[in-house]
Specification:
72% of the residues lie in helices and 0% in strands. With 140 residues, it is mainly α.
Length: 140
């Protein structure tokens, strides 16, 4: 008689056949740099899509696993579910932190508008313009 393990009951509870093999295909990935600003925007979009997708898929798994646990749970299933729930919470936290960092970057960009920045060149141009106006008034 074969000894039954938590691993077996977990797979059985989810309706998995231990003999089934799942083939996974991965897309080829190539990364191209377009320059800092474009890369940041593109990375933000991809990271956000990935994080949100992970949260949604995890929530679906949580729903199915919670139903199975109600029917008769094993310690391993409960532990797996709690780890998955913690992972969803951690991922959601990363999304919020990402939004906060992007917001702070946008605030810094707004503070550094070129029209508001004074450089030595613009200060010298202002001085020259003032001197010309003064000379015109005196001569004129």
């Amino acid at each position: 008689m074969k000894k039954r393990t938590n691993k077996d009951s977990f797979g059985e509870a989810l309706g998995l056949d231990p003999e089934d093999k799942v083939e996974i295909e991965l897309d080829d990935t190539s990364i191209t740099s377009h320059g800092t600003k474009e890369d940041i925007k593109e990375d933000y979009i991809k990271l956000r899509e990935s994080l949100i997708g992970s949260i949604i898929r995890s929530q679906e798994i949580i729903d199915v696993t919670a139903k199975e646990i109600k029917g008769g749970s094993s310690a391993m299933m409960v532990q797996s579910l709690s780890q998955l729930i913690k992972g969803v919470g951690d991922t959601a936290k990363v999304v919020l932190e990402l939004h906060e960092k992007i917001r702070k970057l946008d605030e810094v960009k707004e503070e550094e508008k070129p029209s508001e920045k004074k450089t030595i060149k613009t200060n010298l141009n202002d001085i020259i313009d003032i001197a010309r106006e003064r000379e015109k008034r005196m001569n004129g």
